[in-house]
Amino acid sequence: MFCLAIKHFFKLTISPTRFLVTDTFQTASIKNNILYGKPVAERILNRCQNECKEYIEKYNHRPKLVAILVGGNESSKLYVRNKQRIAEHVGVDFHVINHLMHVTPSNLIDTIQDLNNDDSVDGIILQLPLPLHLIDKTEQFIDAIRSDKDVDGHTTLNNYSYRQSSSPFVTIPVVDAVKEMLLEIGEPLQGKDVVVIGRSKYVGTPLALMLSQSNITAKSDLISGATVTICHRHTPSTNLTWYCKNADIIISAVGRPKLVTYRMVKEGAIVIDVGISKSWTDKAVVSNKRFVGDVDFDEVKRIARWVTPVPGGVGAVTVACLISNLLKLARQRKQ
């Protein structure tokens, strides 16, 4: 069970296919009560495609993005494939460096430094999670990436900038993606109770910070002023259920299949699923739906007002936000 003891509150109530569209209305992303990510991603990628074309014409150089993939984590491989497909469609030069599961820390650092020193490389992705023998050095590897090539916004310098600035230059793609999905719904967060499941430095914690910020500093009044509760691995399962059942919005970013069940969701709640993992159940194999989210989607969609699917939800928007970061960094390095 998701057992843990938590009282971790933020109470800041002060307030492919082809990625080309012409005129896409907000409601195009919503079908019944399912909030799809593709139309949201399309709008971002249309802008990116135009920016990429302008960049190539101006500098005679395609923006170059390199992903480092260590081991054979299925979810990680899926994410890298999606990033490559979308990046290449936009016009980005995308490369993957595959390291075996048992790569040494020094070899991984050497790879990162080589990319740092390569002027043709505009962005570097270190695909997470890393294998177990490297996972405790994750921050060390991330901080080895030059901050002006850090498209994920994970380095200490960029992470600090994100926390301190109301408009950081590089945003964390998954946090930006959740923001875009909530903007699509178009309801103000002020006064709403939000539960974020997962407190990682790179997803859960910055998500809570964004959602609870004062509307004085928020880019949009729609995404600010919520009362946020963070649940994590030490939150007792009964407490987790209680927090979720009383939440207006649930955002899960753990990577644990069917963690959020319909019994944990009150009628009319909004459920945003950021998690993804591989499912080997007979039902998943038969329906060819091997990748699943944290939410028991088929059951939760019967009671939630809005729910995002996996795949097809936040993931596509996250990749679009990452490509947007790459183009910002590429332009900045040319100035």
Automatic annotation (TrEMBL):
<dbReference type="Pfam" id="PF02882">
    <property type="entry name" value="THF_DHG_CYH_C"/>
</dbReference>
<keyword id="KW-0560">Oxidoreductase</keyword>
<comment type="subunit">
    <text>Homodimer.</text>
</comment>
<dbReference type="GO" id="GO:0004477">
    <property type="term" value="F:methenyltetrahydrofolate cyclohydrolase activity"/>
</dbReference>
<feature type="domain" description="Tetrahydrofolate dehydrogenase/cyclohydrolase catalytic">
    <location>
        <begin position="35"/>
        <end position="152"/>
    </location>
</feature>
<dbReference type="GO" id="GO:0005829">
    <property type="term" value="C:cytosol"/>
</dbReference>
<protein>
    <recommendedName>
        <fullName>Methenyltetrahydrofolate cyclohydrolase</fullName>
    </recommendedName>
</protein>
<keyword id="KW-0378">Hydrolase</keyword>
<keyword id="KW-0511">Multifunctional enzyme</keyword>
<dbReference type="InterPro" id="IPR036291">
    <property type="entry name" value="NAD(P)-bd_dom_sf"/>
</dbReference>
<dbReference type="InterPro" id="IPR020630">
    <property type="entry name" value="THF_DH/CycHdrlase_cat_dom"/>
</dbReference>
<dbReference type="InterPro" id="IPR000672">
    <property type="entry name" value="THF_DH/CycHdrlase"/>
</dbReference>
<dbReference type="GO" id="GO:0035999">
    <property type="term" value="P:tetrahydrofolate interconversion"/>
</dbReference>
<dbReference type="InterPro" id="IPR020631">
    <property type="entry name" value="THF_DH/CycHdrlase_NAD-bd_dom"/>
</dbReference>
<dbReference type="InterPro" id="IPR046346">
    <property type="entry name" value="Aminoacid_DH-like_N_sf"/>
</dbReference>
<dbReference type="GO" id="GO:0004488">
    <property type="term" value="F:methylenetetrahydrofolate dehydrogenase (NADP+) activity"/>
</dbReference>
<comment type="pathway">
    <text>One-carbon metabolism; tetrahydrofolate interconversion.</text>
</comment>
<keyword id="KW-0521">NADP</keyword>
<dbReference type="Pfam" id="PF00763">
    <property type="entry name" value="THF_DHG_CYH"/>
</dbReference>
<feature type="domain" description="Tetrahydrofolate dehydrogenase/cyclohydrolase NAD(P)-binding">
    <location>
        <begin position="177"/>
        <end position="333"/>
    </location>
</feature>
<keyword id="KW-0554">One-carbon metabolism</keyword>
